[in-house]
């Protein structure tokens, strides 16, 4: 009988495949993981506490820095919570611009995930293709709001400013371009036997387990649970558009991969409809210069690329929130990681972690 000595191994916090400043302490019996402990907090900035000393408009740039590869959706959730408390009416054109940038952001986020995930498990070319096509979205965002990563574009009552001339046409052209490229992505990767050997059947759990852990986004839908806030509890103007909610069957990394890839296709489908319907008009509602939110509390939740992000605000009638709390999908989704890693081979650690798709800025907030 071969006896092995238990090995304690630190993965991170500097490891490139931990997707940020994140650390996992694993105990190994040979190559098999017997225990895994995530260590968080290296990127903690106290956003929720800082917000109590900021006006509502000043908080918006801080949300950019949470999930910094899906900043537009973070901007929206804080604005929507304040607008709910104030009972604001948002102009139609602003609603369309918000929806368009959020769906472009979902595509850009999933493409970054696709490229880095394939890089994590040994493929170089997809990373280059993903960043080439994501760059086109980043350039459009740069035209729209003057920034490439943290946008600060949403405003309470609307958006910062209108889209420049010809911008909507660029979105229309990009949708046509990306539809074709998405098919090429599948031809390149999805049926590759080495890729399938690395991902299929790995990190599996059922829908009941996903619900018990509070998972959301592709981590929930990959297990067969058809839940998407854009469809089940529509916000913004999502109830005006036709799109499907993709789900998996086996709840493994391969199903989560397929769900995200299909979500790109459905986002393109939403954008295709939206660009044909954008009305003319104002981009900001009637909002006082100094925002004093009525006393009360509100909770807003939306479907970000990583799952359900929520913002809970308590107001005492002043220009700053009394309390602010975010439900961060990356933080919640990460809780299942130790369960998935125990009993797995060490080579599958990065495959499983990458399949969850965390952004550490959102984990630590």
What's the helix and strand layout?
Blueprint: E1 7-11, E2 23-29, E3 32-39, H1 47-50, H2 56-64, H3 71-86, H4 92-120, H5 125-145, E4 154-155, E5 158-159, H6 167-190, H7 193-199, H8 207-212, H9 218-221, H10 229-232, H11 253-274, E6 296-304, E7 307-315, E8 323-327, H12 329-333, H13 337-341, H14 349-356, H15 360-364
Distance between the termini: 48 Å
Side by side, the strands of the main sheet go 1-2-3
Number of continuous helical runs: 15
Major β-sheet profile: 3 strands, antiparallel
Which CATH class?
Mainly Alpha
Structural class: alpha+beta
Radius of gyration, in Å, reads 21 Å
Overall outline: globular
**Strand content of the residues, in percent?**
5-15%
Order of helices and strands: EEEHHHHHEEHHHHHHEEEHHHH
Number of domains: 1
The appropriate CATH architecture is: Orthogonal Bundle
Give the full name of the CATH homologous superfamily: Cytochrome-c3 Hydrogenase, chain B
**DSSP summary, beta strand count:** 8
Low-confidence stretches: none
How much helix is in the residues?
Answer: 40-55%
Mean pLDDT: 95
Examine the coordinates and then state which fold CATH places here, giving the name of the CATH topology: Cytochrome-c3 Hydrogenase, chain B
Please, could you describe this protein's structure?
It is built from 15 helices and 8 strands. By secondary structure, the protein is of the alpha+beta class. It has a single domain (41-330, 347-364), classed as Cytochrome-c3 Hydrogenase, chain B, CATH 1.10.645. It has a 3-stranded antiparallel beta sheet with strand order 1-2-3. Strands 6-7-8 form a 3-stranded antiparallel beta sheet. A hairpin with a 2-residue loop joins strand 6 and strand 7.
């Amino acid at each position: 009988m071969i006896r092995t000595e238990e090995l304690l191994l630190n993965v991170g916090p500097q490891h490139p495949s931990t997707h940020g400043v994140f650390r996992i302490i694993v105990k190994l019996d040979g190559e098999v993981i017997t225990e895994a402990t995530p260590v968080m907090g290296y990127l903690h900035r106290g956003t929720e506490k800082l917000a109590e000393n900021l006006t509502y408009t000043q908080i918006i740039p801080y949300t950019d820095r949470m999930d910094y590869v899906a900043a537009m959706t973070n901007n929206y959730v804080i604005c929507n919570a304040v607008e709910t408390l104030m009972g604001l009416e948002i102009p139609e054109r602003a609603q369309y611009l918000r929806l368009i940038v959020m769906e472009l952001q979902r595509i850009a986020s999933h493409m970054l995930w696709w490229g880095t995930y394939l890089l994590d498990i040994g493929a170089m070319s997809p990373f280059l293709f993903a960043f080439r096509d994501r760059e086109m979205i980043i350039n459009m965002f740069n035209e729209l709001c003057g920034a490439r990563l943290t946008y600060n574009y949403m405003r309470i009552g609307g958006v910062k400013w209108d889209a420049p001339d010809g911008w909507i046409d660029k979105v229309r052209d990009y949708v046509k371009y990306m539809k074709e490229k998405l098919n090429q992505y599948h031809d390149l990767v999805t049926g590759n036997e080495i890729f399938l050997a690395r991902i299929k059947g790995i990190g599996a759990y059922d829908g009941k387990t996903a619900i018990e852990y509070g998972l959301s986004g592709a981590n929930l839908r990959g297990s067969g649970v058809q839940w998407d806030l854009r469809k089940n509890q529509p916000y913004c103007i999502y109830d005006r558009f036709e799109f499907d909610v993709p789900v998996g069957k086996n709840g493994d990394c391969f199903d989560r991969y397929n769900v995200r890839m299909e979500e790109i296709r459905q986002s393109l489908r939403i954008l295709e409809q939206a660009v044909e319907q954008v009305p003319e008009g104002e981009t900001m509602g009637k909002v006082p210069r100094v925002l004093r939110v009525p006393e009360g509390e509100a909770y807003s939740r939306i479907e970000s690329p990583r799952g359900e992000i929520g913002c809970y605000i308590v107001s005492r009638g002043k220009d700053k929130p009394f309390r602010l709390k975010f439900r961060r999908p990356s933080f919640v989704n990460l809780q299942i990681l130790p369960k998935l890693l125990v009993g797995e081979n060490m080579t599958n650690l990065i495959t499983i972690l990458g399949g969850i798709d965390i952004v550490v800025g959102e984990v630590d907030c």
